[in-house]
Amino acid sequence: MEQTDIRRARPDDIPAIVAMLADDPLGAQRESPDDLAPYVAAFERLAADPNQHLVVAALEGRVIGTLHLTIIPGLSRKGATRALIEAVRVHADQRGSGLGSALIRWAVERSRELDCTLVQLTSDKTRTDAHRFYERLGFTASHEGFKLNL
Fold it and tell me: Are 56 and 17 contacting, i.e. CB atoms less than 8 angstroms apart?
C-alpha cells in the first residue's frame, strides 16, 4: 500500500466521506449524498466534542478512507474508558490495498494513547466479509447487539 496520511477530517472532506458511506447496499438506503446539510451539522457537533475522532485517509490529497472513533468514559470495568469504532469505509478502488487494516491499527493505537482499556465495534449481521476482516485483526464476536430506531 502506498503511503497514506490518516488525519482528522475537515469540512471539505464531507462530500467524499458521505460518498463512501453511501457506496454499498446498506449505505445506499440510508445516506443522501445529494443533501449535505445534515452531514455538515453533524460534522460541526463532532468537531466540537473532544471525544469524537472522525478521520480520513488521504493519498496525494484524495480522500480514500474514513473511520469514526468515539471515546467513552464509564464506570463499569473499574471506571474503564472504551473506544468505539464506527463507519469504517474504504473507497471502492482502494479495497484490498491494506488501507482498512491501517485505519483499524490507527484507531487501536489512538485508543491506547487515550488510555482506553477496550476497543469495540459493531457490524451489520449481513456484512460477513467485514466480520472476517475484524476477526483477522483480533476482534472477537463476543456480544449480541440491539438497536431501537427512534
Answer: yes
The distance from CA 83 to its chain's CA centroid, rounded to whole angstroms, is 11
Q: Is the pTM of this model over 0.85?
A: yes
Question: How large a percentage of the chain has pLDDT more than 70?
Answer: 99
Render pLDDT for 115-141 as a digit per residue (tens, 0 to 9): 999 999 999 899 899 999 999 999 999
The alpha carbon of 72 is separated from its chain's Cα centroid by a whole number of angstroms, namely 15
**Which of 3, 124, 121, 29 shows the shortest CA–CA distance to 67?**
121
pLDDT value of residue 92: 93
User: Which residues, 6 or more positions from 116, have their beta carbon under 8 angstroms from its beta carbon?
Assistant: 71, 80, 81, 82, 83
Pairing, β 118-121 against β 5-8: unpaired
- CA torsion 59-62-133-103 (nearest 10°) is 60
Tell me the average pLDDT of the chain: 94
